[in-house]
Write a structure and sequence with these properties.
Radius of gyration: 18 Å
Number of strands: 3
Strand order of the largest sheet: 1-3-2
Shape: globular
Helix content: 55-70%
GO molecular function: DNA binding; DNA-binding transcription factor activity
GO biological process, one term: response to stress
Oligomer: single chain
CATH class: Mainly Alpha
Number of helices: 6
Number of domains: 1
Keywords: DNA-binding, Transcription, Transcription regulation
Order of helices and strands: HHEHHEEHH
Domain HTH marR-type: 7-139
CATH architecture: Orthogonal Bundle
Structural class: mainly alpha
Protein name: MarR family transcriptional regulator
CATH topology: Arc Repressor Mutant, subunit A
Largest sheet: 3 strands, antiparallel
């Protein structure tokens, strides 16, 4: 039998770690009545401000066909509002409402603490190495 392929082991560890981190995000979001996708959209709008709906999917890694549904849900919760672009009728922006901004101002620092706790076992240099390594893997996987 061949020795264990380290790359296959790395994939297993990567997927399990990603699932565990996603669980933290899911828990943080659920505590405030959001799912992880809604939280990701709100986080994007919180940090970048008004954003074209057509581009949100690329930034939060969800299918463009799902983004309308997510924005609809956030609109019903009164966290997000749509605004038409005055210069291009094809473009519609999403932005946080005052209520959405207040929620993100409350929950994002808590979320940041949760993520910091997850990464607390790593030194700053290890986190930088992890980021660079994952970028290389991601770029290579995109080329396939």
């Amino acid at each position: 039998m061949e020795p264990e392929n380290r790359n296959l082991k790395a994939v297993t560890v990567l997927v399990k770690a990603a699932d565990a981190v996603h669980g933290v995000i899911k828990k943080d979001a659920a505590e405030h009545g959001l799912n992880p996708t809604e939280f990701s959209v709100m986080e994007l709008l919180h940090h970048r401000g008004r954003h074209p709906i057509q581009l949100i999917g690329k930034n939060v890694l969800i299918a463009s066909s799902s983004i309308t549904y997510v924005i609809d849900k956030l609109t019903k919760k009164q966290y997000v509002v749509r605004t038409a672009c005055p210069d291009d009728r094809r473009v519609t922006y999403a932005e946080l409402t005052e209520e959405g901004t207040a929620l993100m101002n409350k929950i994002f620092p808590e979320h940041e603490l949760s993520v910091n706790e997850v990464f607390s076992e790593l030194e700053e240099e290890e986190v930088e190495t992890l980021i660079e390594s994952l970028k290389k893997i991601g770029y290579k996987a995109q080329q396939r």
